[in-house]
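[SOLVED] Predicted holo structure with fe (ii) ion

Edit: marking solved, answer below. Original request kept for reference. I posted the sequence and ligand SMILES and asked for the 3D complex as structure tokens.
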Amino acid sequence: MLSISTQQRVALEWNLNGYQPCPKLKPRPQITSKICSMISTSKTHTMAQEKVEVFKSLESWATQHVLPLVKPVEISWQPHDLLPDSSLPLDEFNDQVKRLRERTKELPDEYLVVLVGDMITEEALPTYQTWINKLDGVGDETGSSQTPWSVWSRSWTAEENRHGDLLKTYLYLSGRVDMLMIEKTIHYLLGAGMYLGTENNPYMGFVYTSFQERATFVSHGNTARLAKEGGDPVLARICGTIAADEKRHETAYVKIVEKLLEVDPTETMMAIATMMRRNITMPAHFMQDGRDPHLFENFSVAAQRLGVYTAGDYADILEYLIRRWRLEKLENLTSEGKRAQEFVCGLAPRIRRLQERADERACKMDLTFSWIFNKKVIL
Ligand SMILES: [Fe+2]
Ligand SMILES: [Fe+2]
């Protein structure tokens, strides 16, 4: 095991506390030790050089089976379709904003916290595109490369870009949230980056995106349901529209891993096991607002307690992917591959048992969030 150097630790603390050090900010011990231990054992560019050929050989397959999942711009929704129309005469535009504020005024504070956290996660899109382009064999080498992998990842980015734009504008118009603190959080998060433990390895990268796209589909689906229950059908439509995009993206990434399992079962099975051993970390785990050293953990608690994204969902997603990829029936594995298969196929019940025990111990918490003007929420 490699040990983390002082220089790496200082850089990491710098990142976690914001790239401009904030003297008032306390360190984040839990995250720091967890990420430090991940980084201390991390490797980069672990895929064997000859595996690049696997991705090259799949280019015509990707053109036929992945690119059709990109939606043409002319038939795609845009944030404009779901927001008050600023091209209208001022009184009509004001009327639309007024109606938006009437719809959002009864939404519970804890719901807004989760929606803001989801929106901030979407807003860190430059980090995600950078990360995808670092995956060996599938990155966009020129910035406008025409390989199907690059065409897909740029189209994916363009589609994703609307998610943060739409949610952020809607929340801004609602007047219910502290935009300055939200903008600072986005600024800090983009400066901090992320660490997913995928080693620039596209096998692990596509396992991660399969899981994560489904997680965002589940999460936006739940914020849609809660918006409807909270009296805002337009916000429900917004979250539902974003969830539908996430579902289509999940389909693309799940298909890629399915194909990799067919052409290279052991390598792919081992990548799935490695990612599950490391946990699929939410990509905004370096989130902070310059005030609350536990912001990300508190946001995660809020998402868990509101039922927007829970440990049960994590286990459900794992079970879904095991079924979808038919991992239990996978053949032609080496002994290492079989061990990876056994580990992954037995993991979901263990996660559920751990969660049940954690739920039994859980007690009510008072949490304060700068995003809602430091109001307290009880979770
Ligand atoms: Fe998204
Ligand atoms: Fe997504």
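OP edit: Strands lie at 366-369, 375-378. Thanks to everyone who chimed in.
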